[in-house]
Specification:
- This protein has 2 domains: about 15-110, Alpha-Beta Complex (Spore Coat Polysaccharide Biosynthesis Protein SpsA, Chain A); about 120-200.
- The protein is about 50% helix and about 10% strand.
- It has 9 helices and 4 strands; from the N terminus they run βαβαβαβαααααα.
- The chain has helices at about 25-35, 50-60, 75-85, 100-110, 125-140, 145-155, 160-170, 170-175, 185-200; strands at about 15-25, 40-45, 65-70, 90.
- A 4-stranded parallel beta sheet has the order 3-2-1-4, with helices on both faces.
- The longest helix has 19 residues, at about 125-140.
């Protein structure tokens, strides 16, 4: 299960968790398992050529299907995380599923037993780490306009942003080596999601 993306969120049911499934050319398996997941569910179709995406949209209309033009491997999960709007994200293979109640139990455990490390408990430390990771992820997966925009915002955000930018610099070469920009359709959805999230911030 992915780490929490917020605190103080009621964990009364499994809808606080988005299940992200990545699949490629395994239509029969994914059609059998998707219905076993608690909603919401995001399926990242990793460039399938067997009609997986069309079949899922027809038989599981509540599942959000993201079609990738080619196989992005395990990094396709990152797209699912970016598109999720719940506090937590859980991954599942296309031939497996979570036991009923398991995700609800897991979220309760995460909330009850969350003890931040003293060395990383300062808000400015967490903010700098998040900004650094966002910039590195953008460098690997987003258009250069997005990378430049994020870098500019970091510079304008003061000491925390500058600290994040400096922390990202030693890792940029590796990020550039792994650069594979997401398809235009996915980028459009990410931009819409970010615009929506920005509008919700106080």
């Amino acid at each position: 299960m992915g780490s929490g993306r917020g605190y103080g969120v009621p964990m009364d049911d499994e809808r606080s968790v988005t299940v992200v499934v990545v699949s490629r050319n395994r239509k029969s398996e994914v059609l059998q398992t998707l219905g076993r997941h608690p909603e919401p569910v995001i399926l990242i179709d990793n460039g399938s050529t067997d009609g997986t995406a069309d079949a899922v949209e027809q038989l599981h209309p509540t599942v959000r299907v993201v079609r990738l033009g080619r196989n992005h491997g395990a990094t396709a999960r990152d797209l699912g995380v970016a598109l999720a709007t719940t506090p937590y994200v859980a991954f599942a293979d296309d031939d497996s599923w979570w036991e009923p109640g398991a995700l609800d139990t897991a979220t309760r455990i995460l909330v009850v037993h969350h003890h931040p490390s003293p060395s990383r408990s300062r808000p400015q430390d967490r903010a700098a780490l998040n900004l650094r990771n966002r910039l590195l992820t953008a460098t690997m997966r987003r258009p250069w306009t997005v990378v430049l925009s994020q870098s500019w915002r970091m510079l304008r955000s003061g000491a925390v942003g500058l600290r994040a930018l400096l922390a990202a610099l030693p890792r940029l070469r590796k990020a550039l080596t792994a650069r594979r920009v997401v398809p235009a359709g996915v980028e459009h959805r990410l931009t819409r999601l970010e615009t929506w999230q920005a509008g919700r911030r106080p």
